[in-house]
Amino acid sequence: MSTKQKPEDRALHLEQFLPYRLNVVGFFASRALGRVYGTRFGIGIPEWRVIAQLGEFGQLTSRDIGELSQMHKTKVSRAVSELDKRGLVTRAENRADRREAFVALTAAGQRLYAQIVPLALAFEERWIEGIAPEELRVFERVLAVLTERGRHLAGAYQTEEA
Amino acid sequence: MSTKQKPEDRALHLEQFLPYRLNVVGFFASRALGRVYGTRFGIGIPEWRVIAQLGEFGQLTSRDIGELSQMHKTKVSRAVSELDKRGLVTRAENRADRREAFVALTAAGQRLYAQIVPLALAFEERWIEGIAPEELRVFERVLAVLTERGRHLAGAYQTEEA
DNA sequence: CCCAGTTAGTTACAAGCGCAACTAATGTCA
DNA sequence: TGACATTAGTTGCGCTTGTAACTAACTGGG
């Protein structure tokens, strides 16, 4: 006879419960970054993500931005509108498909991007400082697996339950 | 002369930017769990956290709950009120300090807790399934370091900038 | 004993969010 | 070609959230 413990008999300790821990660390990340961008540049996380993607890829539709940065289309829409209002991005209608528009950084947007990138990298550097490189590699590999699995467990935006 | 790259010269790739990745995985965790609790029990993440802490520790003040589960005191206040309204917790004034009250699960609350725990553990199990135990241990150790550092980088709630 | 400072918890308010519904444009298939 | 489905993007709405302000109770130094 097996004496192995059935899952339903194990106790739950929230502070060791992985989903909880991931949510907490993600919250800290968001909050800390929000302070950096917010206090120095007056932008929020969604705006920052839009700028980051445009800085990296040059020109994208809102749909692409949402997919690349895991944001709901309404959040993208509002972030792009805000950045447009501030003169940091432009929207150019795609003549081949007039439903969509190509969003790109203006000169001012590019200057802002150039300012933020070093801060973001320094922030990341300070955060992972002192962690052994090989441990960090393991961490990132596991994180990638958990993220991909989490995506399925969570279900994508506006997707019907299959 | 050194040829090492200065940080400000490195490029930023959002999808590899750690704060972003942590935020995304935390979002998936929260969303997936929210579905489990929400659809089956009609409660949200804050309510779940309160129940989890009470199930583990038996009796706590709202302040303790907030500290243990990393929630703002207003969020705790609202979650406890909601659970009280549903008859899942009771509030008993502490006679030695009448500002605070001891919150505890009712019998119904304990039954709910007993129902949720196996689901939560099974969810976690499904999420980490197939990941090598030693990699998981490394992951969790690094996660603990990042969380602690993130707590400081983010700053606690309603704390003045020191 | 008293008064200034601190703490537990609640609430008004505004900002941010996702869902659902909508408009406008494109794709599809007979 | 024409009717129906799909897609990009916006907006109205209700819900959740954190900040700030508040009440009530406790603490401690004089």
Automatic annotation (TrEMBL), chains A, B:
Question: Which InterPro entries does UniProt cross-reference here?
Answer: HTH_MarR-typ, Metal_resp_HTH_trans_reg, WH-like_DNA-bd_sf, WH_DNA-bd_sf
| Pfam families reported for this sequence | MarR_2
Is DNA-binding found in the keyword set? yes
Any single GO molecular-function term of the entry would be: DNA binding
Keywords assigned: DNA-binding, Transcription, Transcription regulation
Question: Gene3D superfamilies, from UniProt?
Answer: Winged helix-like DNA-binding domain superfamily/Winged helix DNA-binding domain (1.10.10.10)
Positions of the HTH marR-type domain: 8-148
* PANTHER family per the UniProt record, alphabetical: HTH-TYPE TRANSCRIPTIONAL REGULATOR PCHR
Q: Write the protein's name.
A: DNA-binding transcriptional regulator, MarR family
